[in-house]
Amino acid sequence: QVQLVESGGGLVQPGGSLRLSCAASGSIGSLNAMGWYRQAPGKQRELVAVIISGSRTNYADSVKGRFTISRDNAKNTVYLQMNSLKPEDTAVYYCNVAVYFRGNFWGQGIQVTVSS
Fold first, then answer.
1. Using one digit for the tens of pLDDT, what is the confidence trace for 84-98?
2. Which among 54, 61, 74, 86 is placed 20 to 30 Å from 116, CA to CA?
């Protein structure tokens, strides 16, 4: 079993920054991908960023140049550094880990609100 615990969300002003963390408990092995999704009210969940075991990354076009995903394999933790936040970034952010041959695991979600 894999449990994901997210932290670092909150309320920030436009242009501000937040750093989300997601720590995975339990073994996720070395072959996996970790990422962040988000879902705004009334909207579908969308991929924000993903990082695979080899540190290759992929970002949604809407966050490129502003968000940075990283991971600490020793700690089984993935981070999302969010800079230059915009109101449209407001959403519940969900951590996800895809463990090959075992399946997907999700965090409970953490609120990010960007507002004046």
1. 999 999 999 999 999
2. 61
